[in-house]
Amino acid sequence: MASFYQLSAEMQSFVNQSALFQPADDSLAEMRAAYDAQCRYFTPALPDGLQREDHMLPVAGRHIPLRLYRPTAAMPPAGWPCVLYLHGGGWMLGGLDSHAVIAAPLAQNCAAAVLVVDYRLAPEHVFPAAFEDCLAVWDMLRVDSLELGIDTARVVVAGDSAGGNLAAALCLATRSREGPPLCGQALIYPALAAVPTEPAASEHADAPLLSRDDMAYYLAQYAPDPAMHADPRLAPLAAANLQGLPPAFVAVAEYDPLRDDGLRYVQRLLASGVVAECHLGRGLVHGCLRFWPQGPETARMYRALVTAIAHMLADQT
Questions:
Q1: Of 99, 161, 204, 261, which residue is the catalytic one?
Q2: Exposed site from 160, 189, 198, 254, fewest CB < 10 Å?
C-alpha cells in the first residue's frame, strides 16, 4: 500500500505508528479505547503560555462539556477572538482530549481562545444530535460569550473530518441568524457529502487510515436513516445555495477518499462569490494533521491553517 500511494518517510511513519493502536475486538468500547490511546500517543504536553479550563453548558436538561484554551497574556479589551473547534472521529469517536495536538496550539499561534465542543456521539445519539449540540454552543456563545471573555464578533469555526462536516453545516445553519456572524470557517479534510465525491472516492477507496468503506460505516452509525442523507446539516454539499457563507479555508489530503469533497466545496463557494482558499497536502493521508509537530509536510499544512485563521480573526475595525 505504501508503494502504491508513494508515501514519504514522514507519512509512512505516521501510518505505522497509527497502526499500533488496534481495538481488542469489534465492540464500540474497544474502538473508542484504541482511538483514545492513539490520540494520547500523538499529543504533546500543553505548550507554555497557555491555560486550559473545562466548562459545562446547560442545554435542555443536560450539559455539553467544553474545553477552553487561551493565552496566559492579558485579555484584549473586547475579549479574545475565538476558534470554535469541532473535533473529528467519524461522529463516533473523540472528545475534549482527542484533538488537543491541533486545537491547543491554535490558541498560542493565533493569539485567540480555542473552544472545543464535546458533542454527543453516535450510535447512541444519531443525526442531528451532534449538529444540534454545536449549534446550541454557537447560539449561546453569540448571545453572551458564555462569560468566557470571548469577542463574539470575531469567531471562526474550525474542524477536522467529521468536525469539518459539522463546521460547514453550522455555517449553513447560521447564515440568517441575528447577531454577529461567524467570520470564517476552517475545514480540515472534511466529509461534506453522504457519498464521498468522485474521483477521489474511487481512486483512494482503500487509502491508509480512512477507506471509503470506513466512511460508509461511520455514516450508517451517525445517520442510519437514508432519508436524511440529502439534509444539508448532514451533507453540506447537498445545499442548493452556498451564497452568504463566511470566508473559507479548506485543507485536503491527496490520498484521501474525502479529498474531492473539500475541493468541490471550494469550487462551489468561489462560484457563489464566497472567498475561499484550498490547501492540497500532496502525499498526505486522512488524519495527518495529528502528526504536524513531527514532519515538514504536515507542518506546512498546519502553518497554512494558522495563517488562514489568523487572517479571518484579524480585527477589521
A1: 161
A2: 198
Matching CATH number, 2-313, of 3.50.30.10, 3.40.50.1820, 3.10.50.40, 1.10.10.10: 3.40.50.1820
At 153, which amino acid appears? Answer: A
Let me know if 63 is a catalytic residue. Answer: no
Among residues 118, 160, 256, 261, the one annotated as catalytic is 256
What Å distances lie between residue 61 and 57, 64, 115, 138, 271, CA to CA? 10, 10, 22, 18, 42
This model's pTM is above 0.90 = yes
Q: Are 257 and 205 in contact (CB under 8 A)?
A: yes
pLDDT tens, position by position, 265-299: 999 999 999 999 999 999 999 999 999 999 899 99
* Count of CB atoms situated within 10 Å of the CB of 77: 6
Cβ atoms within 10 Å, residue 189? 27
Distance in angstroms (rounded) separating the CA atoms of residues 237 and 230: 9
Tell me if residue 27 is catalytic: no
User: Which listed residue (87, 99, 204, 286) is catalytic?
Assistant: 286
Say how far apart CA 228 and CA 17 lie, in whole Å.
36
- Which residues lie across from 158 on neighbouring strands? 85, 186
Query: Domain limits of the chain?
Result: 2-313
- Mapping DSSP to helix (H, G, I), strand (E, B) and coil, where does residue 278 land? strand
Confidence class for position 25, pLDDT limits 50, 70, 90: very high
256 is catalytic: yes
How, if at all, do strands 184-188 and 150-160 pair?
A: parallel
